[in-house]
């Protein structure tokens, strides 16, 4: 999946304009980089379009242990959107990541996240 298709998909799934979808994408990936180990963030970045690699630069080798509420709060702050918009953006982002990367890579990412993230990711497709 190329960058434009990725952003368009997030835009459609979150029902926001493409520019806001870009902000939500960068905010979600940056927050995901904090929540994943550095190695897993790098593995995920390797399967995404080039412009999406930078936000996945993990600040530390270890994953920060926080749940969905904190994740959404961080995305909300980074993207300067409401918590509801951030949650919809995270849902759109996770489902788009699922479609953009290999099944094995997506399972590795989800294995590092609490079970509550499965509900946000939704079903494939």
Class from helix and strand fractions: mainly alpha
The DSSP helix count reads 7
CATH topology: Globin-like
Beta-strand content bin: under 5%
| Number of DSSP-assigned strands | 0
Order of helical and strand elements: HHHHHHH
Description:
This protein has 125 residues and is mainly alpha-helical. The protein contains 7 helices and no strands. The protein is globular. It starts with a helix and ends with a helix. The mean pLDDT is 93.
Structure summarized in a few sentences:
With 125 residues, the chain is mainly α. The chain contains seven helices and no strands. The chain has helices spanning 3-14, 18-35, 38-46, 68-79, 83-100, 103-111, 116-121.
Main attributes of the structure:
125 residues; Globin-like; 7 helices
Helix and strand topology:
Blueprint: H1 3-14, H2 18-35, H3 38-46, H4 68-79, H5 83-100, H6 103-111, H7 116-121
Helix pairs in contact: 1-2, 1-5, 2-4, 2-5, 3-6, 4-5
